[in-house]
Amino acid sequence: MELHNIKRVYLIGIGGIGMSGLARYFHHLGCVVCGYDKTSTDLTNDLHNEGIQIIFDDRADWIPLSFQQLCDDTLIIYTPAVPKDSVILNYFKNKGFELFKRSQVLGLISKSSFTIAVAGTHGKTTTSTMVAHILKDSGNDCSAFLGGISSNYQSNVLYGKNNVMVVEADEYDRSFLTLFPDVAIITSMDADHLDIYGDHAHLTESFQLFASQIKSGGTLVHKKGLPLDTGYTYAISDVTADAHAANVRIENGDFYFDFINADVTIPNIRMGIAGTHNVENAVAAIEAVLRLDINTDAIKSALGSFKGVKRRFEYIVKTPQHIYIDDYAHHPEELRACISSVKKLYPNKKLTTIFQPHLYTRTRDFAEGFAEVLDMVDELIMLDIYPARELPIEGVNSEMLLNRMELQNKRKLSKQQALDAIAHEKPELLLTVGAGDIDTLVNALKEILSNG
Questions:
Q1: Which of 26, 257, 407, 450 lies at a CB distance of 3.0 to 4.6 Å from 9, suitable for a disulfide?
Q2: Annotated binding-site residue? 122
Q3: How many domains in the chain?
Q4: 58-98: per-residue pLDDT in tens?
Q5: 120 a known binding residue?
Q6: 69 and 131 inside one domain
Q7: In terms of domains, do 335 and 388 share one?
Q8: 3-state secondary structure the chain
Q9: Which pLDDT score is estimated for 452?
C-alpha cells in the first residue's frame, strides 16, 4: 500500500478516537473520506461538519458507489472493535479489498517520520498530547495522532510542517507492534486487556517487544520500576531515577515541581493541569523532548499553557459553590491516581463520585482493586457496566463491586436516577469517572451544578 496514491478512504468504525484521527488526516490530504459507525456522537457530528460522510446503519447498499469498485487508490480501514459479522466489513472482504487495521495505517504513516511514540496502560494520552504541545508551543512543530481531544487544539490530530510525528501507541490487540519509533515513552505496564492477553506476563512481553522495536540509536524513556532492561528512567521524588520531579507542591490550586536529570534542572515549573500523576507524565514528556534540543524555558512555558485532554481530569464546573471534575479513568490504578489528586486538591470537601465500570472482563479481573480504590471516596453512585464490545458474563455486575466495598454511603442508580440525585443533593465536590458513555451525563450535570 502506497499512501501517496490513495484518493478514497472508507473507515469502518469511524467514530472511535483513533479512527476519527485517521479520517481527519486523510481528509486534510484531500482524499474523499467516508465511514460507518453504529451510533452518532459529538465526534461523528464534528466529522460530518468537517465534510466527512458517515452512515449509522450497517448496510452495504449505503456504501457510496465510488467505493464499491476494487481500486488501488481506495483504502479500507477497520477497527478490531467492529464485530466480525458486520455487513459492511464483510462486503469489502468479499469484494476482494485488502483491509487494514487502524494501527497498520498509523505504522505506514509514521514510517518515514522521526517518531515519538507513547505507550502505557494508562498515562499515554495525556503524555503524548503534552509532548505534542511542547513541540508545537516551542516552535519546533510536529504532526500528532492522539488518543483524546486536546483542549489546546480541539482535535485529536495535529498537522505539522516538519518530519516529526507524535503517536499514541495503543497496547490493545498488540496494535503498537506496527510502530518502529525513534523515541518511545512507556508510562505503565499494569495488568489490563486480559481478554486479549490472557495474563499479565503476556502483556509485559508485548511491551518488551515494543521497546525492542525502537530504531537503532533511538531512545527509550520509561517509568522507574517497570520490567524493562534498558532506557532512561523517570519518577517522582526518586533521586535514583535518571530524571525525577522534586519539590512537588500545590500553590493556589496549581501544581508546581522542579525537573532534574544529570544534565538539566528546570526549577519552578507550573502545570497548566492538576494531578500528581500529571506531574509524573510531565517528567516523561520533558525527558523525551530534551532529545530534540528543545529550549528549557520553552518547555517550562509550554507546560504552563497546557490545557490537557478532554475527559482527563477535566474541570467542568469550578465555582465557589461547586467543583465538578470529569475523568476517563477505567482501571483501578487510574482511579487511584485521579481520586488521590482530587483529595489532595480539596482535602476539606466531601467527595461524591459517579462511576461507570467499563467491560465485563475488566470488572471481573480487577473487582478487588476497584472495590479498594472506590472505598477512598466519601459517597459513591455506581452505574451499570458499560459492555462496549462484550456480551454479559454471569455474576459480573455493578452490585458485585458494591458488595465488595466497605464504604457505607454507596448506591446503584440508573443514569437518570443519578442526574436526579445530583439535582436534589447538589454536592460541593463531584467526580465522574469511566470510559463508557458516562460522558453523556456531563452537560446535564454541568447545567445542574452551574445553576446553584
A1: 26
A2: yes
A3: 3
A4: 999 999 988 888 888 999 999 988 888 999 999 999 999 99
A5: yes
A6: no
A7: yes
A8: CCHHHCCEEEEECCCCHHHHHHHHHHHHCCCEEEEECCCCCHHHHHHHHCCCEEECCCCHHHCCHHHCCCCCCEEEEECCCCCCCCHHHHHHHHCCCCEEEHHHHHHHHHCCCEEEEEECCCCHHHHHHHHHHHHHHCCCCCEEEEEEEECCCCEEEECCCCCEEEEEECCHHHHHHHCCCCEEEECCCCCCCHHHHCCHHHHHHHHHHHHHCCCCCCEEEEECCCCCCCCEEEEECCCCCCEEEEEEEEECCEEEEEEEECCCEEEEEECCCCCHHHHHHHHHHHHHHHHHCCCHHHHHHHHHHCCCECCCCEEEEECCCCEEEEECCCCHHHHHHHHHHHHHHCCCCCEEEEECCECHHHHHHCHHHHHHHHCCCCEEEECCCECCCCCCCCCCCHHHHHHHCCCCCEEECCHHHHHHHHHHHCCCEEEEECCCCHHHHHHHHHHHHHCC
A9: 67
